[in-house]
Amino acid sequence: MKLLVCGGAGFIGSSFVRLRVNEHGDDVTVLDKLTYAGRRENLHDVIDQIRFVHGAIEDPVAVAGAAEGCEAIVNFAAETHVDRSISDPEGFIVTNMQGTHVLLEAARRQGMRYVQVSTDEVYGSIEEGSFTEQSPLQPSSPYSATKTGADLLVSSYFHTFGLEAVICRGSNNYGPYQYPEKLIPLMILNALAGDRLPVYGDGRNVRNWLHVEDFGHGIGHALAHGLPGEAYNCGGPDECENIEVVRRILGLSGRDESLIEYVTDRLGHDRRYSLASAKLQQLGWKARMGFAEGLERTVAWYRDNDWWWDPIRSGVYREYYERQYGRALKR
Ligand code: NAD
Ligand code: TYD
Predict the structure, then answer these.
(1) 121 included as an active-site residue
(2) pTM of the predicted model over 0.90
(3) Mean pLDDT across the stretch 319-329?
């Protein structure tokens, strides 16, 4: 299949590209703006087997050029970090909403199938039970609000123009090549370096953890078998309180709990996310990786791949970290 993968140089997009090239033999074009989160290094092992276009999804000319000859668009491109959306929301509106609109227009003009990669955060927080695709959309951060806006635009293009569009909503992903602003890689790299592990609030917030390769397979099912106009939840097999995630990482890194530091809570911090994924399972998808095994493998990957994270951790990330956490990293 000829695929345009937008945001394919990011964490989940690059894993999806690897999967499509290696397991499906797809002809992949990646369109990516290469923001701080997008790196060619994430595609190092498949870069010779794809076409890479450096450009933004909100740029109609770049999109038209990249989309030429493609049968489907899978859109991963987004500003993705909740904390950054709190300190500076504007870029989230441009990329997540305006950018999605430009892609939808291109898909409509060319009659392409369209998959929007979305998130459990569009439903907001849930104390007990799990969200289904019928649950109301109640986002709480600027990040999740812009992802919700994008989802609604996607649905409108199905209802109004008959675009073959499908939405796939994942829970919290983890695995190799994740930028260390997110909980798991941040805590792993800090543990390995002997830096403090900053836990927000009481550490009792709960996330539903999904290995990045399982999400890639779920998105593949939505692409191949999803009904146009439908949304599909893709939730991980296990949930875990943040403090328990941090304790496990310390154990796997050979460090003790004295490195834990409770810090000021995130504004508007969602307590718990949880997805019911029966609808995607009916299409034949099932998560293969449990959290215990996935986390162990992920810690091992970061331990063995300092070539990947060292340039990040010694670059502009240091300034971001100091601004966000009010303390410098050791090295
Ligand atoms: P990421 O931040 O690692 O990567 C985002 C990618 O998009 C980067 O390569 C970046 O350069 C690119 N990008 C950003 N703005 C762009 C623009 N204007 N034009 C073109 N490219 C642009 O993100 P991720 O964690 O891989 O998330 C990918 C998608 O999956 C996002 O849509 C996100 O909302 C969704 N999602 C993420 C998670 C998670 O836990 N990380 C869970 C569910 C859904
Ligand atoms: P994050 O990885 O930012 O994903 P999301 O907010 O999209 O779920 O955060 C996951 C959880 O970890 C969330 O409850 C916030 C918490 N967290 C910390 O406690 N400390 C941190 O330094 C970070 C980045 C997150």
Answers:
(1) yes
(2) yes
(3) 97
